[in-house]
Design brief:
It is a single chain. The protein is α/β, with parallel strands linked by helices and 347 residues long. It folds into 2 domains: 143 residues, Rossmann fold; 184 residues, Rossmann fold (3-Layer(aba) Sandwich), CATH 3.40.50.150. Helices cover 28% and strands 33% of the residues. The protein has 9 helices and 18 strands. The chain has a 7-stranded mixed beta sheet with strand order 3-2-1-4-5-7-6, sandwiched between helices. A 7-stranded mixed beta sheet has the order 12-11-10-13-16-18-17, sandwiched between helices. A two-stranded antiparallel sheet has the order 8-9. A hairpin with a 5-residue loop joins strand 8 and strand 9. The two termini are 36 Å apart. It comes from Marinobacterium mangrovicola.
């Protein structure tokens, strides 16, 4: 997030409010300001919500499911727009339901993130007035609730899990709000195609297995036996919901799905770790994400275990892993992705 957007957000949150909802996602730094009276936080990132709770905020981890909130219960909603259009449309629709008459929706975002279009659509949806301020490329838009439109914005049925038929990749349950929710990541497919050779044993895998950054569960569903001692973990609320649904549908009775920041809430060690680590955070690239995944992999990998990573070719995973693992091997490189085998964790 730019400093300008941060400043605008802080200015709004410091204004007194009796009943306010602050919607936060991956673009918000956790240590922004002290808890504000009358402000409830809802966010879809485990690490962020945990950090805000520790600071004293009233914060709820949710896939932006506001269905239990009563109509016309809020005087203000503050939202720094998300990366995915379906999420933004869903939350604008919810604002029309949750705001009191003449209540206010504050949208903040950069011009390159579609803020002007979102503000225009939000005004049509809420049916009230719109006031805009511009600082550089960042826009602050205040929209009041008038007569809400009969037709909501198209949010791709955001709250609904749906079945994806991905041709040769099989069928999966997924939903918007999860990165790459309607496709199979090419890196993950590359890992599955080479996994048996990497590990020197046939699929499906048995034993204790960790899917680190599981998404909707593609690696687990294609690599692991239903009887495996499987743990799947992710930071994103939509990913946790979708992964649980897929494992249940496929009969993984021994599997568990756990919220964590790169596995930091887990205590067991695993014989096999599978990982396609993210490197994007919000609208930018967060350099330390790979480091966090490697640090937790060292902690969670059994002494004789093997971790199998797939990363974009430009990620220097081998260099980053040098001080953490005694054995580091690049199994394959297809010009886009690398498959890296890690074993013998140090320390």
């Amino acid at each position: 997030m730019t400093d300008t957007a941060l400043n605008l957000l802080v200015q709004e949150l410091r204004q007194p409010a009796e009943r306010r909802l602050w919607i936060v996602d991956e673009n918000i730094p956790p240590q922004l300001l002290a808890p504000q009276q009358g402000t409830q936080v809802v966010g879809n990132r485990f690490d962020l919500i945990r950090a805000m709770r520790e600071q004293g905020w009233s914060a709820e981890l949710s896939d932006f499911d506001l269905s239990q909130w009563p109509e016309a219960c809020l005087e203000q909603i503050i939202y720094r727009v998300s990366k995915e259009k379906a999420v933004v449309h869903h939350l604008i629709n919810e604002a029309a339901r949750l705001l009191r008459p003449e209540g206010e929706l504050i949208l903040i975002g950069d011009k390159g993130e579609g803020i002007k279009t979102y503000a225009r659509k939000a005004q049509q949806c809420l049916g009230g007035d719109k006031a805009e301020q511009k600082q550089g490329s960042v826009w602050h838009c205040s929209l009041s609730l008038g007569k809400a439109a009969d037709e909501p914005l198209d949010d791709q049925n955001y709250t609904q899990m749906r079945e994806l038929d991905l041709k040769d990749a099989g069928q999966y349950l997924s939903k918007p709000g999860l990165f790459g929710w309607n496709k199979v990541d090419r890196g993950s497919a590359f890992l599955i195609a080479n996994l048996a050779e990497m590990l020197g044993r046939s699929l499906p895998l048995q034993g204790s297995i960790l899917d680190l950054g599981c998404g909707f569960g593609y690696l687990s569903l294609n690599a692991c036996a239903t009887s495996a001692k499987l743990t799947c973990t992710d930071n994103n609320a939509a990913a946790l919901i979708a992964c649980r649904a897929n494992l249940q549908a496929r009969g993984y009775t021994q599997a568990q799905v756990v919220a964590s920041d790169a596995g930091d809430t887990l205590t067991d060690q695993f014989e096999t770790i599978l990982c396609n680590p993210p490197f994007h955070a919000g609208f930018g690239v967060e350099g330390d994400l790979t480091d966090r995944f490697l640090q937790q992999t060292r902690r969670l990998l059994a002494p004789q275990g093997t971790a199998c990573f797939v990363v974009n070719q430009h990620i220097p995973l081998e260099r980053k892993a040098r001080g953490l693992f005694a054995q580091i091997h690049c199994h394959a490189d297809n010009g886009h992705f690398k498959l890296i085998q890690l074993s013998k964790p140090k320390g």
